[in-house]
């Protein structure tokens, strides 16, 4: 796959998403524009039902916008077929959820290796990369523990190692600290932010957790399918979105 043009890591232009529902239509996204650069740690904040998951699914190409365009690493998602999108995710995107979704009977190492198995990476290389990813999240010594033997925070670290193992350029996470106590959540937030900055990975974290949005470079506030406020944490200034809003 060759990228179409040099663009930001992720760009979304005028994204809308309508769902047919009960004989009517739910306007889940109503005109979203956003840009995420390499190495930016961005929080997506909004109440339940505001459109966070819908937006994330569209940015990683597992759902399509009703209207609008998404570019990831220069690829215009509209122009990729399902296989090409799956390949883009396999090669360049990491995904984390609220629950770690580990296979409990597999070791941490085996869980982290899974995406590499799907990508048919040879065995020795898989183990090397999985060990390296576990080291990266501070679990180098626990590689042989099974999913069930790990604490909630450790399981989320394994999930992060799994999201990192193929060296993605963009990571999305949906409430990654949602099931953790506040101290463990703080550790995971710090780790995500550090890795985003040191590895130059763009991260978009949908969250209700103040620990995440207080440590983010930028906070996008989404209300009823629109980005209502765009706070740049480097200046600390809340501002109305400079992006155009559509109704
Ligand atoms: N498959 C679907 N069919 C119909 N409506 C849907 C569907 N998926 C989402 N919606 C609606 O779209 C809106 C946005 O939902 P979304 O799941 O994106 O919100 P969210 O901000 O992620 O919420 P939460 O924080 O609870 O996960 C909601 O009104 C929801 O009911």
Automatic annotation (TrEMBL):
The UniProt entry, under CDD domains, shows: ABC_MJ0796_LolCDE_FtsE (cd03255)
Keywords attached to this Swiss-Prot or TrEMBL record, sorted alphabetically, are: ATP-binding, Nucleotide-binding, Transport
The record ties this protein, via SMART domains, to:
AAA
SUPFAM superfamilies to which the protein is assigned, alphabetical = P-loop containing nucleoside triphosphate hydrolases
Q: Gene3D superfamilies in the record, alphabetically?
A: P-loop containing nucleotide triphosphate hydrolases (3.40.50.300)
Give all residue intervals belonging to the ABC transporter domain: 10-247
Q: Which GO terms describe its cellular component?
A: membrane protein complex; plasma membrane
Q: Name one Pfam family in it.
A: ABC_tran
The source's domain of life comes to Bacteria
User: In its keyword annotation, does this UniProt entry include Nucleotide-binding?
Assistant: yes
Gene Ontology MF terms in the entry: ATP binding; ATP hydrolysis activity; transmembrane transporter activity
Q: Which PANTHER family match?
A: IMPORT ATP-BINDING PROTEIN
- What is the designated name of this protein? Putative ABC transport system ATP-binding protein
Q: Give the source lineage, highest ranks first.
A: Bacteria, Bacillati, Chloroflexota, Ktedonobacteria, Ktedonobacterales
């Amino acid at each position: 796959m060759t990228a179409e043009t040099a663009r930001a890591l992720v760009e979304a232009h005028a994204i809308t998403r309508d769902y047919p529902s009960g004989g009517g239509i739910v306007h889940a996204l109503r005109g979203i524009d956003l840009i995420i650069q390499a190495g930016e740690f961005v929080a997506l904040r909004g109440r339940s039902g505001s459109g966070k998951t819908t937006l994330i699914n569209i940015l990683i190409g597992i759902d399509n916008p009703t209207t609008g365009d998404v570019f990831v690493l220069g690829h215009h998602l509209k122009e990729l077929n399902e296989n090409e999108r799956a390949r883009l995710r396999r090669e360049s995107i990491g995904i984390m959820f609220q629950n770690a979704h580990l296979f409990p009977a597999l070791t941490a190492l085996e869980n982290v290796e899974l995406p590499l198995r799907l990508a048919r990476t040879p065995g020795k290389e898989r183990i090397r990369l999985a060990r390296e990813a576990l080291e990266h999240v501070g679990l180098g010594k626990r590689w042989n523990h099974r999913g069930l033997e790990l604490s909630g925070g450790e399981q989320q670290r394994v999930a992060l190692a799994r999201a990192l193992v193929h060296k993605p350029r963009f990571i999305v996470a949906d409430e990654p600290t949602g099931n953790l106590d506040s101290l463990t959540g703080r550790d995971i937030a710090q780790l995500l932010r550090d890795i985003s900055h040191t590895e130059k990975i763009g991260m978009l974290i949908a969250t209700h957790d103040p620990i995440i949005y207080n440590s983010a470079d930028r906070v996008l506030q989404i209300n009823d399918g629109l980005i209502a406020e765009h706070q740049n944490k480097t200046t600390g200034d809340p501002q109305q979105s400079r992006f155009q809003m559509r109704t």
